[in-house]
């Protein structure tokens, strides 16, 4: 579709103005009987959700006549806007580059023949020296400030006319005259229409049915467009604010389930996979003051046992909130007088029973968390001797049992620190002194399970320990190789007082062992802005850089990203075992994260130690086949059940290709194996063989190997032998039915309910579909021919959808009841294994891996559209690979198979088994538990103003 104009703008600042400008260009001089004369592109309304946004934008740019740049300092710095402008400079004439100034300055220097770049801040430097004459531009700053976005407003109408004239190819005066003529014509026709209403009444009644049908079609199109726009907004917001992305995705699915909404749901579930709960959204009022020096602080604290989270945000209520992590519910709020002006600290005892809250002027309150009762209130130090008493304490620490509270504050008239230790039970100050240090950057922590207090002077690089029995401090101990006199060091000391994380102003991040005085690790640049430490024996640390919360290993290497915020993270807290991380951002948003993937998948136990294994195609069995060793078999349990080793098969493979088929009954009690034509039955509880093996002629030379499945009655088996595809009685070994005579080129796949199966004949490139006919017999439903060289086939749980992979990487989906085929995308050659289909057949998934990435790709089976990817860790539990045995199976980084409970399983080379959901309804419920609140009014009106759409989540 050819476009007359392309509007490029800053999404952070000018969405509303860009929308009004697009509408004005469409409406000006538009004949009342026709659609808009101009077609002007704006990404939020004109671009459907796409996994490759830049390619879609590039396609629109290539067919656009005029480029309209909505200039502002934010747009000049936008990466996407700069890419769009660079494309135009490289491929299009500059006489069709129009500028509309939203904010900032644009100044032309007549003598230099270029913009005055000393005064111009609304244009990117890409335009430096590009224009030889002053380009067409209009000033919209006053219009934007007054929000006067109607063509009835003379100033806005004049600006729109100036930009629209070259697009129409006429002068502005002629365009304005045509617009007036069209309005007059429209008025005359309206008057004539009123006089004809009586005549038309009967006709209107007769046409009512048709009008209703057209209305429904229009409403359906409007819902589709709104769903696509919301889905695109969800993907756009994903990296900066997964919580908001979840809201947009939920509304996209609510207004109309589409391939775009499914993609948005899948992507937002993955982005929120480590989120336990979004406890508080960011404040819209705060968001309007980006860069304000009076940003309201957000504070968080987690008990070391991981049971209790305390938090507040000054932009919210004036109370401290308590969240029970284990129970997953809010407890009573505390009316604590926290220091919201500067972000007063919160400290919890190890069991979360006691909370210390920093108030104004160095007031500290101690609370009983469970009873929501104030235990103690005390001003630390002497306010008359303290400088800047309105500011916060320099440091605060609570002992593990909550009986001792230590604070550090600046002493009046000097740069010395004053340290106080309070007995929270008696309310008495048991120790007070000045450190003698000239620095103000100090870390305090009580040594684990004791009342000994450790103080780290981050400017001097020294530590001292206070002995509560003697009431004295140890001699200061220098840290080996500590930088000389650094300034403005961010200090975090672990509760066990063994380690400290230091973030220096030049970007360095260092981890120190305070017992030995040695540096553990150092990161020169691009490290976290802030860090917090779990117990010293835990492998991972929590850090934040900008708005992103990340886990690091003890060598400060990035381990995984837990989540993100729209604004920079102010405060972090972590449980002692490192499992729970809480963060608060500049706009007051607060979230609780789990280092386990909470929603993208559940890690199942593997207590028997399967490694380098291979999943069966139905996801019920895993094998480990090593050279010169017997074959071990694991079953995959239902629900929370994981891998359980049940049988050791006698077959030993050397260098030949393994040829073995294994299947298990639905209750896991009996297992059947097919090895070189021998059918054996096994008792999984004892690991012993049942009866004697039944020998058939083995099927040789097939690349699919031995294939064997139980049917729904758990008695009869279907498998591939030399005679063809047979149904046999597992009790007697007798053949009940021959389904297909060809064997060497046939792949057999059984549905999850074991009532349906498909046979792929690769020699004929056709798929035959079969279903249960009762009495352990199957009947053929249909045969479907497929284009190209069919390579692999999969079947949904109910057997209603099949997926066929071609040798060139193409994927096709077959609706088995009708035989209709939908062609999908071409898959990457890095794909792994078969395709897995969701329980309802709506979504398909396949594992992929490359040198740098491992994950799962998704497709919509109805239209064949790609729905994006989920990244996967090579070992879902974070375990190291370690030395590997010499396997004949299981070489892939990750394998994928359907889960009998629905969804799919992934098996890593470290034996990590993860069950993941492949169901939009489950994704929606998961996201509702994280972001149940409705869209803000402004966002709702922008996308759904003309529709009636209820909340996607129950109130």
Automatic annotation (TrEMBL):
Record GO biological process: signal transduction
Domain TIR: from-to ranges: 2-147
Pfam family, any one: TIR_2
Gene3D superfamilies in the record: Toll/interleukin-1 receptor homology (TIR) domain (3.40.50.10140), YVTN repeat-like/Quinoprotein amine dehydrogenase (2.130.10.10)
Superkingdom per UniProt: Bacteria
Xref: InterPro entries: Host-pathogen_enzymatic-act, TIR_dom, Toll_tir_struct_dom_sf, WD40/YVTN_repeat-like_dom_sf, WD40_rpt
Protein name stated in the entry: TIR domain-containing protein
Protein source organism: Streptomyces tsukubensis (strain DSM 42081 / NBRC 108919 / NRRL 18488 / 9993)
């Amino acid at each position: 579709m050819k476009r007359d104009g392309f509007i490029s703008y800053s999404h952070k600042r000018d969405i509303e103005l860009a929308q009004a400008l697009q509408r004005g260009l469409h409406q000006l001089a538009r004949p009342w009987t026709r659609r808009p004369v101009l077609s002007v592109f704006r990404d939020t309304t004109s671009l459907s959700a796409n996994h490759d946004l830049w390619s879609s934008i590039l396609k629109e740019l290539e067919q656009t006549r005029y480029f309209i740049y909505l200039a502002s300092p934010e747009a000049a710095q936008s990466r996407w806007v700069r890419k769009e402008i660079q494309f135009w400079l490289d491929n299009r004439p500059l006489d069709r580059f129009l500028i509309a100034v939203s904010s900032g300055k644009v100044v032309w220097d007549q003598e230099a023949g270029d913009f005055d770049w000393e005064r111009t801040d609304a244009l990117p430097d890409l335009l430096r020296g590009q224009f030889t004459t002053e380009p067409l531009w209009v000033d919209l700053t006053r219009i934007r400030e007054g929000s006067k976005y109607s063509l009835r407003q003379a100033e806005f109408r004049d600006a729109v006319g100036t930009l629209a004239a070259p697009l129409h190819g006429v002068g502005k005066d002629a365009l304005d005259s045509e617009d007036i003529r069209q309005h007059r014509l429209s008025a005359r026709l309206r008057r004539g229409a009123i006089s004809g209403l009586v005549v038309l009444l009967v006709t209107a009644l007769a046409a009512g049915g048709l009008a209703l049908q057209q209305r429904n079609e229009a409403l359906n199109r409007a819902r589709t467009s709104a769903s696509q726009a919301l889905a695109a907004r969800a993907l756009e917001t994903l990296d900066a604010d997964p919580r908001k992305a979840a809201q947009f995705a939920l509304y996209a699915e609510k207004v109309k389930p589409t391939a775009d909404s499914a993609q948005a749901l899948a992507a937002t579930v993955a982005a929120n996979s480590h989120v336990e709960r979004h406890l508080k959204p960011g404040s819209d009022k705060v968001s309007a003051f980006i860069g304000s020096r009076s940003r309201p602080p957000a504070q968080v604290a987690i008990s070391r046992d991981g049971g209790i989270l305390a938090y507040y945000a000054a932009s919210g209520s004036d109370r401290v909130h308590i969240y029970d992590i284990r129970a997953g519910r809010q407890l009573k709020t505390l009316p604590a007088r926290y220091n919201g002006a500067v972000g007063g600290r919160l400290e919890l005892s190890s069991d979360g029973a006691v909370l210390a809250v920093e108030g104004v002027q160095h007031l500290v309150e101690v609370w009983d968390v469970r009873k929501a009762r104030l235990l103690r209130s005390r001003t630390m130090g002497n306010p008359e001797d303290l400088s800047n008493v309105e500011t916060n304490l320099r440091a605060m620490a609570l002992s593990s049992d909550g009986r001792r509270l230590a604070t550090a504050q600046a002493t009046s008239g000097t740069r010395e620190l004053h340290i106080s230790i309070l007995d929270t039970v008696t309310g008495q100050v048991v120790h007070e002194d000045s450190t003698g240090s000239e620095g103000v950057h100090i870390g305090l922590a009580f040594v684990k399970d004791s009342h000994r207090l450790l103080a780290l002077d981050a400017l001097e690089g020294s530590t001292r320990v206070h002995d509560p029995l003697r009431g004295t401090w140890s001699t200061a101990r220098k840290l080996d190789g500590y930088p000389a006199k650094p300034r403005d060091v961010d200090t975090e000391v672990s509760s066990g007082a063994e380690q400290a994380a230091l973030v220096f102003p030049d970007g360095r991040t260092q981890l120190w062992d305070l017992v030995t005085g040695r540096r553990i690790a150092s990161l020169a640049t691009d490290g976290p802005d802030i860090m917090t430490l779990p117990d010293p024996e835990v492998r991972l640390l929590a850090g934040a850089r900008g708005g992103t919360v990340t886990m690091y290993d003890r060598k400060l290497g990035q381990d995984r990203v837990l989540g993100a915020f729209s604004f920079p993270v102010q405060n972090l807290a972590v449980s002692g075992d490192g499992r729970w991380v809480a963060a608060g951002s500049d706009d007051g948003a607060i979230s609780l994260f789990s280092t386990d993937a909470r929603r993208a998948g559940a890690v199942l136990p593997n207590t028997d130690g399967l490694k380098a294994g291979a999943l069966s195609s139905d996801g019920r069995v895993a094998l480990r086949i090593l050279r010169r060793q017997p074959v071990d078999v694991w079953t995959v349990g239902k629900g929370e059940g994981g891998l359980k080793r049940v049988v050791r098969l006698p077959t030993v493979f050397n260098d030949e290709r393994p040829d073995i088929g294994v299947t298990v009954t639905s209750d896991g009690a009996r297992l059947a194996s097919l090895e070189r034509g021998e059918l054996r039955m096994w008792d999984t509880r004892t690991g012993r063989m049942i009866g004697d093996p039944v020998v058939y002629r083995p099927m040789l030379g097939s690349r699919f190997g031995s294939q064997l499945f139980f049917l729904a009655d758990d008695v009869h088996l279907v498998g591939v032998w030399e005679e063809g595809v047979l149904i046999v009685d597992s009790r007697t070994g007798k053949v009940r039915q021959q389904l297909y005579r060809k064997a060497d080129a046939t792949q057999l796949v059984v549905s999850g309910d074991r009532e349906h199966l498909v046979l792929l004949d690769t020699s004929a490139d056709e798929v035959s579909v079969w279903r249960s006919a009762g009495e352990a017999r199957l009947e053929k439903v249909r045969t479907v021919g497929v284009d190209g060289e069919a390579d692999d086939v999969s079947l949904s749980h109910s057997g209603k959808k099949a997926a066929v992979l071609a040798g060139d990487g193409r994927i096709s989906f077959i609706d088995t009841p009708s035989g209709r085929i939908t062609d999908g995308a071409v898959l990457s050659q890095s794909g792994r294994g078969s395709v897995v289909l969701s329980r309802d057949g709506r979504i398909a998934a396949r594992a992929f891996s490359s040198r740098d990435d491992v994950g799962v790709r998704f497709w919509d089976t109805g239209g064949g559209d790609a729905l994006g990817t989920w990244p996967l860790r090579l070992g879902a539990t974070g375990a190291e690979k370690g030395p590997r045995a010499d396997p004949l199976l299981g070489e892939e980084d990750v394998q994928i198979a359907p889960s009998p409970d629905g969804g799919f399983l992934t098996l890593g080379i470290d034996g990590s088994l993860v069950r993941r959901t492949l169901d939009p309804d489950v994704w929606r419920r998961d996201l509702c538990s994280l972001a149940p609140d409705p869209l803000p009014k402004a966002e709702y009106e922008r996308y759904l103003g003309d529709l009636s759409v209820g909340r996607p989540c129950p109130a």
